Amino acid sequence: MSDMSPLPTSKRPMPREIGPGVWWLGDCLGQLYNGKIYHGYNAAHMVVGTTAAILSDTGHPKDFPVIEKHIEHVLARNPGVPLRYLFLTHQETPHSGGLGRLLGRFPELEVVGDVSDYHLAFPQYEHRMRFLGEGEAIQLGGREFQIVEPVVRDLRTSNWGFDTKTRCLFPGDGFAYSHYHWDGHCGMVAEEATSLDLVDVCAVFQERALFWTTFVDMERYVERMEWQMQRLGVRLVAPSHGLPVTDLERTWPEIRKGLLAGEGKFDEVVKAASEFAAHAS
Amino acid sequence: MWSDKAEGPWLIGGDDGVTSNAFVRAFLLNTGFWWLEGARCDPLRKNVRQVFETYDIEMICPGYGAILKGREAVKKQFDVLDAVLSDLDRSKVPGRYIPHDLVR
C-alpha cells in the first residue's frame, strides 16, 4: 500500500484471489479531499485458465514494479500457464500505462480489445495488437474472457470484460469508488469494509473522475447496468478503482445510490471555485 | 478542423468553411462528448459563456485541428457551440442511455 500516513495499513496481502483463478493486483493511490486522504485502487486483474492467462488493465505506471511482482506470484502458483493476453478497458494512463513495459517483459503477450492508438506510442509492437469487439472472446482453457458492453465509460473506446467461469465482470471505471485508508480498507473486498460509506465515496468519485455522469440522467445508465448484470449472470465484480464486490445483492443497492448521488456535484465544485476566486481577488 | 494536407493551412482567419451547427454537433457526439445528448447542458453553456465574456479572446488554439485567429472567428466558434449545447439540453432532448459506438 502507499505509505500516506502512520495509520494501520492492510492486513490483507496482495495479490488476492477474489474468485477461483481471478486475481486482484495493484496498489492504492492516496488523494487529499476535504481534509482526509482517500485511497483508490488503479488495479489490474489476472484471470488464469488451464492453457493461458489474461491480464485486464496494467494498473498505474507508478505501480508497475508492484504489479510485475504480483504477476510473477500468480504465474508461480500456476506453473505451465503463460500470461498470453492483455485486455485494456481503455487508453487512460492508470489503466494502460504499463503497456510498453509489459510487452517488453512478456514477449508472447498479445494486446486484445479496442486497441486504437496504442500503435502510435509503441509502433514496434503493432503486430502484437489485435482488435476484438463486443461479443468476441478469448479462450483461456476451461473458461473464456468475453468483451462486453461498457455501460459507464470514460472514453469512446472503453470496453468491459467478463469471465465466464466465475461470472466476474471487469468494468474498468464502472463501480468506481475510493476507500478509507485510515480504517484499514486497503486490500479488503467491499463487503469486508463495513465502515465504508459507499454512497458518499461513489458520489465523490463520479465528480472527481467521471464528471459527465453528473450531467446526464444516470438512472438510465444504472438501469442498463442492472440489465447487463442480469443478462450475463454476474456474481463477482472486479473494478479498476473500487474494492471488489463479492455479494452483489448486498452491495449493489448502495453503489446504485452512489451513482445517482453525483448529479449536480460538478456544478457545486464550479460554483465553489468561482466564489473562491472572487473572494481571493 | 481537419485538413487533408499536412502542410495545412493550420492558421485560419475569417470563415473556416466547415464550422456549422451540424458539423460541431456530429463532432461532439462522435468523440469524447458522446454523452451530451439529453444532458443538463445549461451549466456548461453558462461556464463557456463566462469564459468568452471574461477574456478578450483573439485566437483559439485547440488541442486538435487548426488555430483559429481573429475576433469574428472566435465569436463564431462560441456562438455555434452555445447553439449546439442548447439544442442538446435535456429540456429539448429527453435523457436516455447512449449505446456504445452510436454514430450520430
Task: Describe what this molecule looks like in 3D.
The complex is a heterodimer of chains A (281) and B (104). With 281 residues, chain A is of the alpha/beta class. Chain A has one domain: Metallo-beta-lactamase, Chain A (4-Layer Sandwich), CATH 3.60.15.10. In chain A, 30% of the residues lie in helices and 21% in strands. Chain A has helices at 64-77, 93-96, 99-105, 118-121, 198-209, 218-232, 248-260, 265-280; strands at 16-19, 22-25, 28-33, 36-41, 44-48, 53-56, 83-87, 110-113, 129-131, 137-139, 144-148, 160-163, 168-170, 179-180, 236-237. Chain A has a seven-stranded mixed beta sheet, with helices on one face. Chain A has a five-stranded mixed beta sheet with strand order 10-11-12-13-15, with no helix packed on it. In chain A, helix 5 (198-209) crosses helix 7 (248-260). The radius of gyration of chain A is 19 Å and the shape is globular. Chain B has 104 residues and is mainly α. Chain B has one domain. Chain B contains three helices and three strands; from the N terminus they run E-H-H-E-E-H. A three-stranded mixed beta sheet of chain B has the order 1-3-2, with helices on one face. In chain B, helix 1 packs across helix 3. The longest helix of chain B is centred in the last third of the chain and has 18 residues, at 71-88. Chain B is globular. The A-B interface holds A 134, 149-151, 153, 155-156, 158, 212, 215-217, 220-221, 223-224, 266-267, 270 and B 30-32, 34-36, 38-41, 43-44, 47, 90, 95-97, 99-101.
